Amino acid sequence: MSTAQRIFHGAFGRIALLHMDAALVPHAHSECHVLLKAAGADSSFNVKGQRQPLTNRTAVLVNAWEPHGYNHEAEAEATLILALYIEPSWLAQMKRSLSLSARPDFFQRPCVELTPHMRSVSEAMVADMMSPGLVPRERVEELLFELLIGLFERFSEWRHLTRMYGPAETWMQDARIRHAREWIICHLDQELYISPAFSAITWAPRRVNTSVCWIASAPEAAGIADPGGCRRVTPATDSSGPGTVQC
Questions:
Q1: Domain membership flag for residue 169
Q2: CA proximity to 106, closest of 56, 154, 158, 151
Q3: How confident is the model at residue 209 (pLDDT cuts 50, 70, 90)?
Q4: Of the candidates 137, 164, 191, which is a domain's last residue?
Q5: pLDDT, average across residues 42-49
Q6: Residue 219 in contact with residue 231, Cβ under 8 Å?
Q7: Does 170 score more than 80 pLDDT?
Q8: Where are the alpha helices (DSSP H) in 95-226?
Q9: How far is the C-alpha of 193 from the C-alpha of 215, rounded, in Å?
């Protein structure tokens, strides 16, 4: 299973230190996603239909809304993973052109080799997350941005604006989806309506996270004129993360 050892939340999105000892079904996030090994056994993720190794020397890069899943061998030791879920809006505040990190073709390669400096910065982030005390927000954001800029400079298309301002085939541009997601994030303490069509989908883990739950919302946010056919779901109160609802 996946167990969060510690999670940092902020305008940047969230940073999680995850203890992984079982496979994770394919899923997707609206954020720009970076995965690094912190400790334990080497492992891998499936991205773009291929196995991408996660080792001390590599990082796995996942574009927004790109399906990916975690592989774990039955007899293998657990892996501690530093998982970054980065909000494009935060990156855009740092540098306007980084709003392109919301595109599904921002990263051209799903598995890249880390430089010694990138590895050093990621280890400093892991050390902060494993420390018992509070970590200043400024330090978290400073290390995070330093690591991301290094990755973006080498492995993304953010400097090639003329290439990236064109439409992408899989870009999530439906305004209803964006509005529904924004409504969910702003109303995590309230009950949500789930459309019957969404309820009919079979999810392997019976849990839906706001990063992929783009139909669940208030009826008006999801464009549902008649909420009579919807059912309410109360947000979970466990520690599995913000925006988690039981389904």
A1: no
A2: 158
A3: very low
A4: 164
A5: 92
A6: no
A7: no
A8: 116-130, 137-155, 161-164, 175-186, 196-199, 219-222
A9: 9
Distance between CA atoms of 43 and 81, rounded to whole angstroms? 10
User: Residue 113 in 3-state DSSP?
Assistant: strand
State residue 237's pLDDT score.
36
Domain count for the chain: 2
Which residue type occupies 187?
Answer: H
Structural contact between residues 69 and 25, judged by C-beta atoms closer than 8 angstroms: yes
Same domain, 158 and 120: yes
Backbone dihedral angles phi then psi of residue 93, each to the nearest 5 degrees: -70, -35
Are 155 and 231 in a shared domain? no
Q: Supply the pLDDT for residue 166.
A: 52
pLDDT tens-digit map of 71-83: 988 788 999 999 9
| Separation CA 143–CA 240 (nearest Å) | 25
| Domain of residue 47, residue span | 2-164
**103, 57 in Cβ contact below 8 A?**
no
With 0-12 / 13-18 / 19 or more C-beta atoms within 10 angstroms meaning exposed / middle / buried, residue 209 is middle
pLDDT tens digits for range 87-137: 988 988 888 778 888 888 888 899 999 999 999 999 999 999 999 889 999
Of 217, 216, 209, 211, the closest CA to residue 240 belongs to 209
Residues 158, 110: one domain?
Answer: yes
